[in-house]
Amino acid sequence: MINLTEVTKTFPDTTAPAVDRLSFNVEEGEVVVLVGPSGCGKTTTLKMINRLIEPTAGTITVAGRDILDMQAHELRRGIGYVIQQIGLFPHKTIGDNIATVPRLLGWDKLKTEERVRELVDLVQLSPELLKRYPGELSGGQRQRVGVARALAADPPVMLMDEPFGAVDPIVRANLQDELIALQHRVNKTIVLVTHDIDEAIKLGDRVAILSEGGHLEQYSSPADILRNPANEFVADFLGSDRGIKRLSLIPISAIQLDPGPILTRMATRAEAAEIMVRYNVDWAAIGDGTAVDGWFTAGDLQGHETLENVNTREFTIKLSPNDSLREALDAVITSQTAVAAVFDGDKYLGMATVDAISREIVQ
Amino acid sequence: MIVAQADQPFLRWDWVGRNLDELWAATQEHIILTTIAVGVGLAISLALSIVALRWRKTYTPITWVTGVLYAIPSLALFAFLVPITGLTRLTAEIGLISYTLLILIRNIVAGIDGVPEPVLEAARGMGYTRRRMFTDIQLPLAMPVIIAGVRIATVTTIGLVTITALIGQGGLGFFILRGMQFFSAIGTTQILAGTVLSVALAVTADIALLGLERLLTPWARRKAVV
After folding, report:
1. What mean pLDDT, rounded, does chain B reach?
2. Taking CA A56 as the corner, what is the angle to CA A54 and CA A61, rounded to the nearest 5 degrees?
3. Which of B129, B132, B222 sits opposite A136 (nearest CB)?
4. How far is B100 from chain A (nearest CA, A)?
5. Residue B179 to residue B43: CA distance in whole angstroms
6. Tens digits of per-residue pLDDT, B20-41?
7. What is the Cα–Cα distance from B198 to B161, expressed in whole angstroms?
């Protein structure tokens, strides 16, 4: 969908190129994140795709067409653009801001209005905001408007330059999740620039790691980059907590779950004591195959010969096989039972243990 | 003399009553002279500002030339123009217009320079052409600063119009000039009438333009209540 071949940019009055013979391609419907330290040319690269910066040499094609064959403003109307500072027009209402590109393209009024309502819904904004001005909105709301505005004319390609850099971490995490959900619905080809490797890993189908001068150090899926960093630069950039980062990309379903210390109601006090010793824990669960009632501690057994009438406690954290190993590890560390119980709906699947999680990372 | 003067009333309200029609006509003329001066001045300034913004190197020479125009004493300017264009409204307007240019150009350029860069980048990135960006984004956002300039230019011009009475095109300045030829309450009354009406006109115009600014920039008043 987007193809860069030997693209070079040398700014006037500088000798070293900001981007030096960079080549990569972006498939249709793919989210590619350009990431690297400041001065690596990631933003320059992004802005060359919509010709806010003209390349010095090399070829860029979008949907098979050389971008230099088009008028710059016509090229841009077909590419959604979101920037960190958002750049909403302060003198236009939210509705008018979102309608920007449809109006530039000369859509009729009804079609534009209908599209604006659709977009407000898509980015989960309240329609009451349409008559307000950007100055009246919160940072998170403005960012949603920025995304809606970029999507307005339904462009196949979106360019996003540090789109969540200016909002606080909690809002940022929400907006990232929303972008992922949004992308499932709209299926755009997205190129996103960030300096935050965690954001790159979370959002990218593929991640391009750039070093100073626009050198492409590695271009692959986040999981692959974390497992096999191409060189020392990449390994350094990923940081020493690379293993933990990988956890967030691997679903619980990838590991072998342990049945855990589980007994039926028929079991005796002696059997309970025995399984606790075997698992080296002071609790056990009561269940029958795929149904689990809950768990109890050794103390709860006081005065019971069998488990028939023992009171059980609920598992406070129930994970699903789609949750990541990072969440599983978090549950293991923070729960009293020192394991993470995994359920598929109501069906009990087993327990994720620290051993099983680390085995997955080490292999 | 002093005793005789003290006998006379300070103001001759009867003169005011007898000359209401003339006062009204002069006020209208004053308004017309000012409106033409600020209107044409604004059009010229807008054109020169576009040149200055498009070709940055021209900004210094433009402000230099308009600065010199602004610095020429008005009396000298009229003395210079009368032999060429005569005792006409054209002469008056040339002078009045040239005094508006510096203020207006500075404000237009400053207003447009003050438009935040991210707004421009977003506009470019979405496919605005240069011309459409100017009319649709830059000019509206510069409006508060431009109108601030128009307010100063208008108030200044209303004051200056009284000077153009010297070439017979003075609006309310006519009464001030004529009043100075009377050493009596009739004279004082005329000077005061011309002055008070001129000041009232300036205040009214300033308030009206402030209202216009409010009307044209509804976004500026509605800030976040977060």
Report:
1. 89
2. 60
3. B222
4. 27
5. 36
6. 888 999 999 999 999 999 999 9
7. 9
Report yes or no: A305 and A268 within 8 Å, Cβ to Cβ.
yes
Across chain A, what does the average pLDDT equal? Answer: 90
Q: Do A87 and B226 touch (CB under 8 A)?
A: no
Per residue in B69-102, pLDDT tens?
A: 999 888 888 888 889 988 888 999 999 999 999 9
Type of residue numbered A301: L
DSSP A8: E
In this structure, how many other beta carbons lie within 10 angstroms of the beta carbon of residue B67? 13
What is the DSSP pairing of strand A157-161 with strand A79-83? parallel
Q: Which of A88-92, A151-155, B5-9, B198-202 has the weakest average pLDDT?
A: B5-9
- Burial string for B163-183 (b: 16+ CB within 10 Å, else e) reads bbbbbebbbbbbbbbbbeeee
Place of tokens 């006509």: B25
Going by pLDDT thresholds of 50, 70 and 90, the confidence category of residue A74 is: very high
Q: How far is A341 from chain B (nearest CA, A)?
A: 42
Q: Order the strands of the A283-288 sheet from edge to edge.
A: A262-263, A283-288, A291-297
**Closest CA in chain B for residue A101:** B126
pLDDT at A342 over 60: yes
Question: What average pLDDT score do residues A235-239 get?
Answer: 91
pLDDT confidence bin for B5, thresholds 50/70/90: low
Q: What region, left, alpha or beta, does residue A198 occupy, with left being phi > 0 and alpha being psi -120 to 50 degrees?
A: alpha
Question: Whose CA is closest to A175, among A242, A243, A123, A229?
Answer: A123
| C-alpha distance from residue A334 to each of A242, B88, B143 (Å) | 21, 91, 58
Residues with Cβ within 8 Å of A324's Cβ and at least 6 positions away in sequence, in order, are A247, A248, A249, A250, A251, A252
DSSP A97: H
- Which residue, among A200, A138, A127, has the nearest Cα to A163 in the 3D structure? A200
- B35 and B70 Cβ atoms separated by less than 8 Å: no
Is the pTM for the entire model greater than 0.90?
A: no
Is residue A356 within 8 Å of A247, Cβ to Cβ? no
Whether A184 contacts chain B with CB within 8 A: no
